[in-house]
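WARN retry 2 of 3 for item q-0093 after timeout on previous attempt; input resubmitted unchanged.
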Amino acid sequence: MPRPAVFCSVAVVLCLLLPELSSTGQADYTVYQLPGTSLQLLLEGSVTYHAGGNVTHQHPRGSLHFSAQDIQVLKSPTPQSVYAKRLREVRKLGDVNEVLELAKWALKNGMLEESKSLLSVAWKIDSSDERLVKLADLMRYINHSVPDNPEVEQHARQFVGSDRMVATRSKHFLLLHDANTATDEVTHKTRAEMRLELLEKVYESYLLTFAFEGVFLRPPNQPLEVVLFSRQADFMQMERRLGGSLKQTAGFYLPKENISMFYDSGTSEEFQVLMELDRQLVKLRETAKQARGPGAGQLIRFAKTIELLIDITRESEDVSTVSHEAIHHLAANTGVFPRDGAFVRWVHEGMASYFESAKLAKWSGVGVVDSSRISYYRVLEGDPHRGSLEFIVSDLGFLVETALGDQLPAYGQAWALTHFLFNEHFMELMQYYKKVGQLEEHEGDMTAAILKERSENLLSVFDECFGDRTKLEMEWRRYMRTLRTDMERLAENRAGGTGPTR
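OK item q-0093 returned
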């Protein structure tokens, strides 16, 4: 997956969710404009105002300090409070359908444990419901580890070419990583343990998302192989071996080898620049502590805030990349996309982007409206060629955007179409995925004639599954106009907007 710029010149929404609930079910949503840039941060939590015009925002990784004039504070119900209210309602109704709908909502909003707990609520209402019987079977599989297989670890080590890396198991993954016993100050876990925990969340969310729609996928019967490099330099050595350009890549999945690879984003060139900024700020902070001159306290607080934001952003980059590539890995091992089938770029990247975690430093759920993805869609929406449904489905988007120098617009288009089809035409999409998986992959270089034939075949399969393409495109455009990022949703709520949003 290509890595977007960490701190870019366009507005980026970064959403930080606190686990604690306020007593009223309301949260302070702090919109912070980084001075001198257009970078906006959206933080959920609690805000404390201090004398002198300063503000403290509490975050699980520490306290963030801002000037009151640099922020805008909005209030809105937390997802957890919305869930609690709806839970009381469905308990009173005693309807399995209502309970399962709430379970789906919780899963989409990143509340995996709450979603799973609702299965017990539904079971008490009607344990004979066929859907619940199948879900119970799925949960039994999810809750148990797949058997160890020495050949899995051996395969990963042989491919990486290192006997020094450490192998760590979780229930459904084998992670090969550099020996690093340092623990995170907040989670008290190593980075390997944190990555495995995230992979398991993605794994469960993925299987449950399909199950809630009535599609029970075939779970893998052995550990999935993942490699985590502690340094970007080691990761980049794979470029020469694979014969491709991975300079803009934060992680990748190899279908033939059936292995995913990532690196610690904190070692990338972009983050090294940020870390150097952080080091300079630390020096200024120490100097200010000693001098205790005018403005020293403000400088110290600013330096601490930047240091914390860099730490949070680093973790967010890892979470986003791991969740994206994990979906590629899972789709290839659960029967959705056969590993030896045709690789239709918009199909694969669209699903991975749909499941990709977009909120900062945590698993945020399924189908999040990411500001970057939807911005690229909106830019191309009016383009009669690059923004058309035909252009996306023919799978020419990634080819053209790569030639233009940036694949991110193609990712935005693939995400947008997948978001629509996943939520409005799920069963047709499953049929389409099946037919795409049956197509043969062309080997060798693509000539213009081969590309034309491939595009026509893809459009034919799409039309066979979804019908009238013109009508579907109109429906897609209407659907996309209902999607809102968290920042947009909060702004509309404050203005008293009542339009439909998702």
